[in-house]
Amino acid sequence: MLKYAKGENRMNEKMKGNQNGRIRYDDAFKQGAINMIVEQKMPLKKVSQELGVSTDSLRTWLRNANFNPVDKNSNNNLTKKVRDLEAQIKLLQKEISKKDEAIEILKKSIGIIYNP
Fold first, then answer.
1. To which H or E segment does residue 15 belong?
2. Which of 32, 64, 110, 111 could form a disulfide with 2 if both were Cys (CB 3.0 to 4.6 A apart)?
3. Are residues 58 and 85 in the same domain?
4. What pTM was estimated for this model as a whole?
5. Where are the alpha helices (DSSP H) in the chain?
């Protein structure tokens, strides 16, 4: 787990820039960032700010490590929506069932009135 004191230089955890001027991070740094998100349940944006790494890089590292933060975050919302919709469907099915029973009772009562 990577923990940093305020103002500590994080460059010693990174590899130097390559010919393209892009910074290459070593595997230990990437794994530490992934652990902060997955195990410590820190928000992606907070880890990004704390480590000075773009959120896109973090998402790529998570995806490469078979974690998908977008799915997990949205999955909670989707799961809640699915549960709400399933509850609403059950409620509507109960209402339909009651109305069907009322219709059957009315049909029988009409039959009794017209066929004494």
1. strand 14-17
2. 32
3. no
4. 0.45
5. 27-38, 44-51, 55-64, 69-114
